[in-house]
Design brief:
single chain, alpha+beta, 5 helices
Length: 186
């Protein structure tokens, strides 16, 4: 990808230290361990070139196991919030939840928290099974579409609609992707 673009995708990024500056790496690790929302990449970081290491190109390497689909999203000017949630009390396993968005999008500054709460509710009560993936990124794109570990949410003009769309697409990480149903057939 061009050197100024960040990438989020299905799978775990294998080489974050090759791309991100030290402060961003520290914030990623902080967000992976807390229920609080952390501003991983702010508008100020973008404005002052404090996000990516200075390279003409970056090669992003993601790995995912047992997924039937793959997607990625990229931006050079989106901000990034992160948090995490314990999805399996027996093992202490956490899921890293990110919201990546245009600062002009309504309610997207609350999507990381919405995602964390939704995954917690699904894991403990609604599905009763731990969220299946180690991470989930909610990308501020267009419409609504789900992929393992990545969902695409367009801008919704009210908070309730933002919660509904985000929760709906997170639910698809169980059906079809976790149980491997053929969504178009069923």
């Amino acid at each position: 990808m061009p050197g100024e673009h960040m990438v989020w995708a299905t799978g775990e990024l294998q080489n974050p230290g090759r791309h991100y500056q030290k402060e961003v790496l520290e914030r990623i690790e902080q967000a992976r361990e807390t229920d609080e929302v952390v501003s991983i990449v702010s508008q100020e970081d973008l404005d002052n070139n404090r996000v990516l290491k200075n390279r003409k190109e970056h090669t992003w390497h993601f790995v995912a196991e047992e997924v039937p689909d793959f997607a990625f999203a990229t931006s050079s000017n989106y901000v990034w919030d992160g948090t995490s949630v314990e999805v399996d009390p027996g093992t202490g396993r956490r899921t890293f939840v990110s919201a990546v968005y245009d600062t002009g999008s309504s309610y997207f500054d609350q999507v990381a928290e919405i995602g964390r709460k939704t995954i917690d509710l699904f894991s403990r009560d609604i599905m009763g099974a731990p969220f299946p993936w180690p991470k989930l990124t909610v990308f501020n794109g267009s419409g609504g579409m789900e992929f393992p570990m990545l969902i695409n949410d367009g801008e919704i003009s009210d908070y309730k609609g933002t919660v509904h769309l985000t929760a709906h697409e997170i639910g698809h990480n169980y059906f079809p992707f976790y149980v491997m149903t053929n969504e178009s057939y069923y």
